[in-house]
Write a structure and sequence with these properties.
Elements: H1 3-22, E1 25-30, H2 37-46, E2 58-65, E3 68-75, H3 85-89, E4 94-100, H4 105-129, E5 136-141, H5 151-157, E6 169-173, H6 182-203
Parallel strand pairs: 1-3, 1-4, 4-5, 5-6
Antiparallel strand pairs: 2-3
Helix pairs in contact: 1-6
Bound molecules: guanosine-3'-monophosphate-5'-diphosphate and magnesium ion.
Magnesium ion binds at residues 37-38, 52, 54-55, 74.
Length: 204
Amino acid sequence: MGVHRVVEVAHSLVWGLVALVHTPAHVVLVGLDSSGKTTALLRLKYGQYVNAVPTVGFNCEKVRAGGAQWLAWDVGGAERVRPLWRSYTRATDALIFVVDSSSSSERLEEARVELQRLTKQQNAQCVALNKHRPPLLVLANKQDLPGARDVNGLAKALGLPELQESQPWAVMPACAVTGEGLDEAMATLHTLVVKARKQAKAKK
Ligand code: G3D
Ligand code: MG
């Protein structure tokens, strides 16, 4: 690679990072109903607990978290509206799958099926469009509740280690009510988004 090309690549990487800091990355929050998506979004937006009403349609907020700006979409998680997730997640920069860490084995299995379905659909879309996979953050929410599983237990129950190698993912603990862990989780997601963008640029 010639010096000019190296400078060109370095320049575009730096501008890519600057753009990421100043242009909000799009992120979509999905997950079963009552996992805490809206509570997490409103906590990130207002820095305090806001009692959320069940989401009809979607909520969209511009938030600053984990050292970056985000345009965050929170989509309803009830069974009848889950088919809509794919429309919201088609062109996103990142995905957050919120899980109630204290849920029963049956509910976790339901979450596993939905998560695996979603990542498979996304994989097919990304292959068709020759795009990189948007990073996935599994937010292990409701860590304050008794019986909450830890991140390793949840990763296993949701089948995260079996996801394709091309799918970047992380699982982070949080409590959306107190806000504990949310900023660290968003910082981890931000790192994955920056890495994915760098890799996509380097491929061009
Ligand atoms: P959803 O948007 O995923 O459907 P919501 O979920 O944000 O509406 O939250 C569903 C319920 O879970 C709410 O309680 C909310 O307060 C609660 N919740 C969200 N996050 C946490 C958490 O980290 N810990 C605990 N203990 N509760 C949480 P209600 O009683 O209003 O239904
Ligand atoms: Mg909601």
